[in-house]
Design brief:
single chain; five-stranded antiparallel β-sheet
Length: 609
């Protein structure tokens, strides 16, 4: 009996405790928690949403890249619509009357289900149209307006960098329930990467309805209204003037140009050409079909999405690895009589022979790097070519190749690096040799790098062996940008070896006439530009033109890649474009007006199409 009584008491105590919790919760919800009462009685209230102004995006010098303009969304509350003057409504907003009548018919049919919700009827109308609507609002019962901002672009530049904003759809809301119908979200570029900072927080005004569902007054004298909180401003690393200038150089050309500040990893300019016309960003939905069907793919950001073979600029990486492994030095020479003749061979252009490390960079000798690469792969310090290749790949990955660099560009791709498994699949396990993969010696074959990777390579060499993660935002208002961008990423190559490579890069641009230097067109007196040309073999047409550089030689301020599709030798188009960029950035002007005019007027797209 004692045990049964004890169990009974425990049960009674448990029931009483549960009842007390329920009573207290009901008291809290019904008596204390006024906000719950407001929500529960939603049909008695009308919420007018107040949309925040989106944060402004500035360039590195404080100039506005993306601002805001006022626009209005005309809203409809179907339950309150009674015989509007549809003809006048259509005149104000340039609407088709048949479409409007059909829409109103659908709303009438579903108004019980919609209830007192207010839905967008016409989006982003101008202040002039809104003023006319306001004057005639008595003709349109059930219609109202909500103020919101749309993006404005003072500079006709940065389309692919900035991104755009668009209204959320059902699938997006399903994955992001904090967004509601009628909200806007950043897509691509900075707008997407920094959506959480730029978007702000919505507010609302609550109005009380009477028994006839008419707006009676502000509820509780505005006690529960919520102010909209504007988005926070962002200062980007982009130089607006430089970006606009480089885009003018890239008119009628397919490819990309990226410039980085080596000492910080900040992206100074990033151009993908052809790109999205900034004038179309604010009304992207209107032009979306036109943009996505353009055969030149302006939405495809080549700078971070296209995995091109790096071509001859990759010789710098192979040279650094060979130096680090001790299989070459600055005195070792190799002959070149039109290329490397063993096996399938690697062809080369005509130049003085033999070459050492310095002259091989200056003249871009393929034979030298075929020999150096084979020495790296056949290094007796490793038990097999497979083991040597695995070590080579570790070196390459330490430069950031074969992986996403971690930039704040949402569409960044990792590029492609071959693996031992790939070569086992192609050639058979343990059946491939250094000659089997000789194309890697000159940046061809099974390797793909984005222009961002190559700009980062230029910055890494400029820094003598390390890089900062490339990024396009310097700071954000009242927000700490990730500390990852201030961390140095070291390669597996000693700084002393970079100095040997840099000497060859300096001569490639600044050696005297007749020296065989491939990048002399990029020389600018006093700037000490160090560069490397590349001509990337293209099986689908004319070779791609590539050039990487940095300047000045000591204490570098800028590192650049220019990658121009179907444009031939690296010195023909990529080198002059990159050097004009450097000249403009470091001196504030361009003295080589004739070269500048030649580049700007050139149309290379015809060769693509």
């Amino acid at each position: 009996m004692g045990v049964e009584l004890k169990k009974k008491n425990i049960l009674i105590i448990g029931i009483i405790a549960a009842a007390v919790v329920i009573v207290l919760q009901l008291f809290n919800l019904q008596i204390i928690d006024e906000e719950y009462k407001i929500t529960a009685s939603n049909n008695a209230f009308r919420y007018d949403i107040r949309y925040p102004a989106r944060g402004i995006i500035y360039d590195r010098n404080g100039k506005i890249l993306v601002g805001n303009e006022t626009a209005y969304d005309i809203m409809i509350t179907p339950y309150e619509v009674k015989d509007p003057d549809t003809l006048d409504l259509c005149r104000i907003f340039n609407l088709d009357i048949a479409d409007v009548r059909q829409t109103l018919k659908e709303y009438r049919k579903n108004r019980r289900r919609i209830g007192f919700q207010s839905l967008p009827f016409v989006k982003q109308v101008s202040p002039a149209q809104y003023a006319i609507f306001l004057e005639k609002s008595y003709k349109f019962p059930g219609f109202s307006a909500v103020s919101r901002t749309i993006r404005s672009y003072p500079y006709n530049a940065c389309g692919n960098l900035l991104g755009y904003i668009t209204e959320v759809d059902t699938s997006f809301i399903r994955k992001n329930p904090e967004y509601k119908r009628g909200d806007y979200v950043g897509r691509t570029g900075m707008e997407q990467s920094y959506e959480g900072i730029l978007r702000g927080e919505k507010g609302y005004n609550i109005f009380l309805r009477d028994v006839h569902n008419k707006i009676k007054s502000s509820f509780a004298e505005g006690k529960y209204d919520k102010e909209a909180i504007p988005g926070k401003n962002i200062t980007s690393s982009i130089d607006a003037e430089l970006q606009q200038y480089v885009e003018s150089l890239m008119v009628n050309k397919v490819g990309s140009v990226v410039a980085i500040e080596p000492s910080t990893g900040e992206i100074l300019t990033l151009v993908s050409s052809p790109g999205i016309d900034v004038s179309k960003l604010a009304s992207i939905n209107k032009f979306y079909a036109e943009i996505v069907t353009d055969p030149l793919k302006p939405m495809f950001n080549r700078a971070v999405m296209a995995p091109y073979p790096p071509g001859s600029v990759f010789k710098l990486v192979n040279g650094l690895i060979a130096l680090q492994e001790g299989v070459i030095d600055t005195t070792l020479t190799y002959p070149c009589f039109g290329g490397y003749k063993i096996g399938r061979g690697v062809a080369c252009h005509s130049h003085p022979s033999p070459t050492n490390l310095t002259s091989s960079i200056m003249m871009s000798c393929n034979a030298y790097y075929a020999n150096a690469f084979r020495r790296t792969m056949d290094n007796p310090a490793y038990p097999s070519v497979t083991a040597a290749f695995s070590k080579w790949k570790e070196y390459v990955e330490s430069f950031g190749f074969g992986t996403k660099l971690g930039s704040d560009l949402p569409s960044e791709q990792a590029g492609v690096l071959p693996s031992t498994k790939l070569y086992d699949k192609i050639h058979g396990k343990n059946r491939w040799k250094s000659l089997s993969i000789i194309s890697l010696s000159i940046g061809q074959g099974e390797i793909g790098t984005t222009p961002l990777h190559l700009a980062n390579l230029a910055a890494t060499i400029a820094n003598r062996g390390y890089y900062y993660t490339p990024h396009m935002v310097k700071s954000a208002e009242d927000t700490t940008i990730t500390a990852d961008y201030s961390q140095k990423h070291y390669t597996k190559v000693d700084p002393e070896n970079f100095k040997k490579i840099i000497h060859g890069m300096y001569l490639a641009v600044n050696a005297p006439p007749g020296s065989g230097a491939t990048g002399r067109i990029a020389a600018v007196p006093g700037l000490e530009i160090c560069g490397k040309t590349g001509t990337e073999q293209n099986p689908h047409g004319k070779d791609h033109s590539v050039f990487i550089c940095f300047a000045p030689k000591d204490n570098p301020k800028i590192a650049v890649v220019a990658y121009i599709e179907n444009a031939g030798f690296g010195a023909t188009w990529a080198a002059p474009i990159a050097s004009l960029l450097v000249e403009r950035y470091l001196t504030g002007k361009v003295e080589r007006a004739e070269l500048e005019a030649y580049i700007m007027s050139a149309n290379l797209i015809q060769k693509v199409l």
